[in-house]
Design goal:
With 256 residues, this protein is α+β, with helices and mostly antiparallel strands. It contains 5 helices and 16 strands.
Length: 256
């Protein structure tokens, strides 16, 4: 699955990387992006003046609100294997596809020490795109009008030691297909939703501070020794205050 990630690049550079002509969101450095927050996404949509389809970097709420037996449930991931099976995903796969830019993502491995967080990067830390789906959203705060989920695939053999799922990370070639509005055939779209090659993935253990959304600083990506026996979260009030001061919570949404 994918439940936390980082994005530490300014909007202009993200737009250049994903060939987005329009920018409707600010992207301050984020190191602990979490569900329910506003996240950056690249979509295709017609220009209201020319009618030409263009890519836009915009903001979505991360997570679909689904009615369940015990109330509203939040869905943050969609399994690639179910996109052509579940009714709620079929139409979205055909027309409401997006890319969620990221610099790294986190995963928790189950070990004798408990759940241990790891930061996973592509290559040497390059910006990458995760396949996503979006739908209209009635935001009570009026910030955004769409919400999204991140598509996941079975983990590659390198990631499998941490978790059995991983985000569907698109290659530059598959990004073109995923964001091509003329492509609606589900079988064609499913061909790009595959695990990224093992050699493209690098990961290392990180601090358990990432478990809490109150922390959002670059130190979350600092490596922690694999043999570290102790929980490395701050334990005293003083340590907590120092960590919080270094982890300023920022919104991705541009309110200007």
């Amino acid at each position: 699955m994918c439940g936390r990630y980082t994005l530490n690049m300014e909007a202009k550079l993200i737009a250049q990387r994903f060939e987005a002509r329009n920018i409707k969101i600010a992207t301050p450095e984020r190191y602990n992006v979490a569900p329910s927050q506003v996240v950056a996404a690249v979509i295709f949509q017609p220009n209201p003046d020319s009618g030409e389809v263009e890519r836009t970097l915009t903001g979505f709420k991360w997570g679909f609100e689904i009615q369940a037996n015990k109330g509203v449930k939040q869905l943050i991931n969609a399994r690639a294997e179910t996109l052509t099976e579940r009714a709620m995903f079929k139409s979205l796969t055909a027309a409401n596809r997006c890319i969620i830019p990221a610099s790294a993502f986190y995963e928790w491995a189950k070990t004798p020490l408990g759940s241990i967080p790891y930061a996973i990067r592509v290559g040497e830390g390059e910006l990458f795109g995760m396949a996503g789906l979006w739908q209209p959203y009635n935001d009570p705060n009026g910030e955004v009008d769409k919400s999204c989920v991140i598509v996941t695939v079975p983990a590659n053999s390198k990631m499998a030691s941490l978790h059995d799922r991983m985000p569907a990370i698109l290659t530059p070639e598959s990004e073109k297909i995923w964001l091509d509005p003329s492509v609606t055939d589900p079988e064609t779209l499913l061909t790009v939703l595959v695990p990224l090659a093992d050699e493209r993935i690098n990961y290392h253990r990180v601090s358990s501070m990432v478990n809490s959304v109150r922390f959002d600083g670059s130190q979350l990506l600092d490596p922690v020794p694999e043999n570290e026996p102790e929980d490395v979260r701050p334990k005293t009030r003083k340590e907590l205050k120092v960590a919080e001061d270094a982890s300023v919570q920022l919104t991705l949404f541009d309110k200007s």
